[in-house]
Amino acid sequence: MWKTILRRVLVMIPQILILSLLVFLMAQIMPGDPFTGLITPDMDPQTIEKLREAAGLNNPWYIQYWDWITNALQGDFGKSYTYKVPVAELIGQRVGNTIWLSIVSLIFTYLIALPLGMYAGRHNGSLGDKAISFYNYISFAIPVFVFALLLIWIFGFVLGWFPTRGTVQTGLAEGSLAYIWSRFYHLILPALSYALLATTVIIQYLRTGVIDAKQEDYVKTARAKGVPEKVVYNKHIFRNSILPIASFLGYDITGLIGGSIFIERVFSFPGMGRLFIDSLLARDYSVITALILLFGLTALFGTLLSDIIMSIVDPRIRIE
Length: 320
Hints:
Blueprint: H1 2-29, H2 45-54, H3 61-72, H4 87-122, H5 127-141, H6 144-158, H7 177-213, H8 217-224, H9 229-241, H10 243-247, H11 249-266, H12 272-282, H13 285-313
Helix pairs in contact: 1-13, 4-5, 4-7, 4-11, 5-7, 6-7, 7-9, 7-11, 8-9, 11-12, 11-13, 12-13
Family: Belongs to the binding-protein-dependent transport system permease family.
Domain ABC transmembrane type-1: 95-306
Pfam families: BPD_transp_1 (PF00528), BPD_transp_1_N (PF19300)
């Protein structure tokens, strides 16, 4: 298996280079440049032109790409024109928030989806199954930013149960229990906003898997031997029904990181998603290209991670 993983990593190298080229060219064809926002009626055009020349924006695209990719391989993604700090440092300040938001969202997603999927599959056709199916239809149809705004209004403003912005209460000593609890408390509402909508696919796959597994011979044999119904579902049916979901776990992790853009924007959460939107509005190309490249890399590694997880969950499957 390790040899296969190494081969996959080697195959990813040209994929990463192609991805970096596409990201760079996409940034090149975007309207304007980082200095466009500085242009005012009183601004001397020659001053702007000198800034563009100093930044290398007047060089041919292939020279700009070569300079960018060689520096990126050394961890230097340039300097943010908006924040006036190195891009790597800027992303480093935000990446932790996005990772924690993604982890908590993933935990909430599976804590909600697995029991609902098992119940719907075990009692298919019941009133509870129909209610879960209705919830699935709603969660699939409603946009994430609309749902997030609805939860903010209900739980943030009407009930006042959760904070609606930021990552931690001000004035707390970093590392203290109060600080750690405040960090988690600020994560609950945005994580739930994403998790409640991300359960749709998991519930549907698990429900279908349980319904199909109930008809399998090994289940009938277990029941004929007098195995308790709870054990039949929790040990035999669940183990086989979870396989399709396990294969998507790597994609779920990377999808959460990319999908946090809307949640972070709505909740004013200082993560990579919000940084991406702010950089787009400011035409901060050095930050945009670095973030898109990072999102693309996580998607590539998500594919590899899904294969590894699948081989661990099901010993019959090996990466070939």
